[in-house]
Design a protein that fits this description.
The complex is a heterodimer of chains A (632) and B (312). With 632 residues, chain A is α/β, with parallel strands linked by helices. Chain A contains 22 helices and 22 strands. With 312 residues, chain B is an alpha/beta fold. Chain A: This is 2-oxoglutarate synthase subunit KorA.
């Protein structure tokens, strides 16, 4: 546990405005000069069920959820179907209260809406005992009553914010500013009244606690957004003007953002009948000359398997997003996991030739989506951005200047009509789209686009000769296979030359290393800082290039440590397996810390996991799994 | 200036331009109905005034998918059942292209049935030709979605217990705005129907009966046939949905009784195509999207100037 931070958790039912309230709370804290990071947990239900969001705020940059939390605003579930009955899922109305007991830190504040949650019921769930044991400050307030006095019941969340501000001694100025910005007329007035009344009422309670909300300031203008925003904005800035998709959690987020904005950028969004069509449409648009994308989550991405292979075989550039959620099958639709790595790397028949990037945070979501488009269109290859429900749902502030980049709409290796006249053609007039040895010595044979004069060729999923016609000639087969696969080496070299997507953290020289990919990077980096403070010698490497794999960077790093712990959110150590496969060794050097219970790692869990691994002890926590290195 | 000068090029088009120098001779079995589609398609091109570089032909998998190899144009031989979603996106990306899709009965009525329904429903301005031979040919004679009830094959040794798909009725209900049936043995009608379908502004569905002399020997070679527009027996209004529905049902049923009815089954001119609908609600640019990528003066807006404000 770290000092000098606020981790505020708001819990309620889906539909109680938990999301929007937490977003406002985070934004207001950002405005006040703090750095914020949110962690979202919700059920696969439209109404009711337990959902919470944590807002972690510090004066220094935050890159992870924290260890537990220290302030709970429990609104109760106003959409509970059987509020007073012992329903299948337990007492639903109370879930957003008692299900949060485990993680509330000692000395924390627990504010709940006694307007919704009956005192007698609350007694029954053992709050009093738990509070005594953990030295919690329990604050029952009639938030519902305050909300109803000025407006509607849904304004309970505004009342909760007002009460939070009073208890934590935060100014309400930024909240007022937000209400004025987002609402008008009666709604605005009612919410302002609710905010103030709740603030006054809570001030009178004089809650005595030790939480100190830090103060901070920003050097430059900040923005707060999610990984899905960043992926979408990266795509738009790289000239993507076509998206096709089918709704599926958590992919829907990117699809929605793109669909809302593309028309105003002169683009097209298509919601189609299924994910096979979604990927096929992106291919068709790209074939016709437009920079296009599609995407889905696990099950929907499985349907894209065949179009993905077609893109590889026809060398049609596309970008696909895979937003992972816990599997297998329907799994846990709203819970994060990193278990689709192998799925994304290998799905579709035949030897795969694709690019896969796993951005670790919002900043990387933007830059790596841009990289994905650049590489896809330059090298005529599908590029996949794989991320997970964790980055999708987390909001974080960063300098606005990060997005102050020039757009790039270059469609890549496409010829103009003038260039086509000078390019190679078959004696019959057909354009040589798939040359064995492209003229510039690279492995990319430039393409043409339908409608261009004298550019006609055949694209086919069958093996084909230079004009695209079907061919099973062995020599042609080898030449085409080699050229397509060699593009990956070219891309690896290109990525090495440009900015590396890998992130190094901690001291240059250390005895131990922690290897991580994708969304767990920030949490690992925080754990590494703490481990070094605790006297350990540890550094970390966050890998984003899943394919082509950054062989040199990772081997050099692995060579520099005695042992490495690979941290990932799945049960079968997929990234460790990939590393071993790609590097052909280090199986005896890498152990794994795995978590697959639907919740992302907390920094303290990685600290514990690391310490017990080097001490050779059993893991104390049952929510994680440790897999030793080969031979251990 | 357009980056696609082949589009709407003003010149005489020769039928032979559509015969590729690489594979001038199709390798279908002798007597195969697919030759009839290829011939009719080539013949229709000079009539509609389209040249090989402005036509994009998308096919599925099977004998019909080979059409791309023997027809000289921009071609995309996709995967089984998926020609339509690839084709319709190309049309959205560049509405000035002449987009044609083709596949077999397994391709369009079986594995790709979902796409066939939705593409019709959306009324994309493309032409779709289904090579209907009532059998899976390239995989050697299995029962297909249009095989008659009781059809025996290696995969249906006791005869199929399923009633066949009703392709015309299905398309009418799905929303296609031009629906016709023709047959390989009637090349003149086929050519006319293909030309009409191409010129139709909306989704044009052609159920093209193509006899399979190798794997469907029992089936009739679709002769004799009756052109319903030429026959006194069938007096119906092709623009009337109810009368068209009645005619289609008759056409589908009589096929299995050995009577081959062909011709235009339904034509609806008033309904706007999908692209037009999308432009009307501001979800599609007026200029073809594909042109922008080749226009050096095109302005590309960035998110920093347009979307970042509400995150501040």
């Amino acid at each position: 546990m770290t000092d000098n931070e606020l981790i505020w958790r708001i819990a309620g039912g889906s539909g109680d405005g938990i999301d929007s309230t937490s977003q406002n709370f985070a934004k207001a804290l950002m405005w006040s000069g703090l750095n914020v990071f949110t962690h979202r947990h919700y059920p696969s239900r439209i109404r009711g069920g337990h959902t919470y969001v944590e807002v972690r705020a510090k004066d220094e940059p935050v890159q992870s959820r924290g260890d537990g939390y220290n302030f709970l605003l429990a609104l109760g579930d106003s959409f509970a179907r059987n509020p007073q009955e012992e329903a299948y899922y337990g007492k639903e109305e109370l879930k957003p209260l008692y299900e949060n007991f485990d993680d509330l830190r000692e000395g924390g504040v627990l504010l709940y809406d006694e307007g919704l949650l009956d005192e007698e019921d609350v007694d029954e769930i053992g709050l009093e005992e738990a509070a005594e044991e953990n030295n919690w400050h329990v604050v029952p307030m009639d938030l519902r009553g305050i909300a109803k006095e000025h407006g509607r019941e849904i304004m309970r969340n505004t009342a909760g914010i007002g009460a939070t501000a009073a208890i934590l001694d935060i100014s309400t100025d930024e909240f007022e500013k937000l209400i004025k910005q987002n609402m008008s007329g009666d709604m605005q007035e009612a919410n302002l009244n609710v905010l103030h009344d709740a603030y006054e009422a809570a001030s009178e309670l004089d809650v005595d606690h030790d939480i100190e909300v830090p103060e901070g300031s920003h050097d430059e203008e900040q923005v707060i957004l999610s990984g899905s925003n960043a992926i979408s904005y990266g795509a738009i800035d790289e000239g993507c003007r076509f998206i096709s998709g089918y709704p599926m959690t958590p992919w829907t987020d990117v699809f929605t953002i793109m669909s809302q904005h593309l028309p105003s950028f002169g683009g097209i969004s298509e919601q189609v009948e299924d994910e096979i069509a979604a990927a096929a449409l992106a291919l068709g648009a790209s074939h016709a000359g437009v920079k296009a994308m599609s995407g889905s989550s696990g099950g929907g991405f499985a349907l894209m398997s065949e179009p993905l292979g077609l893109a590889e075989m026809t060398e049609t550039p596309i970008v696909l997003v895979e937003a992972m959620r816990a599997g297998p099958s329907t799994g846990m639709p709203t819970k994060p996991e990193q278990a689709d790595l192998e799925h994304v790397l290998y799905t579709s028949q035949g030897d795969s030739a694709r690019v896969v990037f796993a951005p670790a945070n919002i900043r990387e979501c933007y830059t790596q989506t841009r990289s994905a488009f650049r590489i896809a269109y330059e090298y005529q290859i599908p590029a996949i951005v794989i991320y997970d429900q964790k980055i999708q749902g987390e909001l974080r502030n960063l300098p606005a200047s990060h997005f102050d980049e020039e757009p790039n709409a270059d469609p890549g290796s496409v010829l103009t009509e003038e260039e086509i006249q000078d390019a190679a053609h078959h004696s019959s007039g057909k354009f040589q789209r798939f040359l064995h040895e492209p003229e510039d010595g690279s492995n990319v044979s430039p393409r043409t686009v339908p409608g261009q004069k004298d550019g006609r060729f055949l694209a086919t999923g069958n093996e084909h000769n230079p004009s695209g016609h079907i061919s099973e000639d062995p020599e042609n087969r080898i030449a085409q296979m080699n050229r397509r696969l060699n593009k990956l080496d070219d891309i690896r070299a290109d990525l090495d030359e440009n900015t590396s997507h890998q992130t190094y953290h901690g001291p240059d020289e250390a005895d131990y290393g922690i290897l991580v990919w994708g969304s767990q990077q920030g949490t690992v980096f925080e754990a590494v800082d703490r481990l070094n403070e605790n006297g350990h010698s540890v550094k970390a490497l966050g890998v984003s290039d899943m394919a082509p794999y950054p062989e040199d960077e990772v081997s050099e790093w692995l060579e520099s440590v005695d042992e490495a712990l690979v941290v990932e959110m799945n049960a079968t150590a997929q990234f460790r397996g990939l590393t071993q496969k790609e590097l052909g060794k280090y199986g005896d050097k890498m152990s794994s810390l795995l978590k697959y219970n639907g919740n992302p790692f907390e920094p303290a869990e990685i600290v514990d996991g690391f310490e017990s691994s080097i001490d050779g002890e059993e893991l104390a926590a049952s929510n994680m799994k440790y897999v030793p290195a080969a031979g251990d | 200036m357009s980056a696609f000068s082949a589009i709407n090029e003003e010149r005489e088009i020769e039928r032979d331009e559509f015969t590729p120098g690489i594979e001038p001779q199709a390798t279908w079995c002798p007597g195969c109905g697919d030759f009839g589609v290829l011939k009719a398609l080539k013949q229709a091109m000079p009539e509609v005034g389209k040249n090989p570089d402005e036509v994009a032909l998308f096919t599925g998998i099977g004998c019909s998918g080979k059409l791309n190899s023997y027809f000289n144009s921009y071609g995309f031989h996709t995967i089984h059942g998926r020609s339509l979603p690839v084709a319709r996106a190309a049309k959205l990306a560049n509405p000035n292209l002449e987009v044609i899709a083709a596949g077999g009965d397994g391709d369009g009525y079986g594995i790709g049935g979902n796409h066939t329904i939705h593409t019709a429903r959306e009324n994309h301005d493309i032409t779709y030709i289904v090579f209907n031979n009532e059998i899976f040919g390239l995989t050697k004679g299995q029962t297909s979605p249009t095989s008659p009830k009781g059809h025996k094959s290696k995969t249906q040794p006791h005869g199929s217990a399923k009633s066949p798909i009703r392709p015309l009725s299905q398309q009418l209900n799905a929303g296609a705005t031009y629906i016709a049936r023709t047959a390989a043995v009637n090349p003149n009608q086929a050519k006319e129907i293909i030309a009409e379908a191409i010129e139709h502004d909306g989704f044009a569905h052609i159920d093209f009966l193509t006899q399979c002399p190798t794997w469907n020997k029992d089936a009739k070679h679709y002769v004799p046939y009756t052109d319903v527009q030429q026959s006194d027996e069938f007096d119906f209004d092709v623009s009337d949905r109810a009368e068209a529905a009645e005619m289609m049902r008759k056409t589908e049923e009589r096929l299995y009784e050995g009577e081959v009815l062909t011709g235009r089954m339904y034509v609806e001119d008033a309904r706007p195509s999908y692209g037009e609908e999308k432009r009307q609600i501001g979800e599609m640019p007026d200029e073809p999207l594909a042109e922008r990528y080749f226009d050096e003066d095109a302005e590309w807006e960035r998110t920093y100037d347009n979307l970042l404000e509400h995150h501040k």
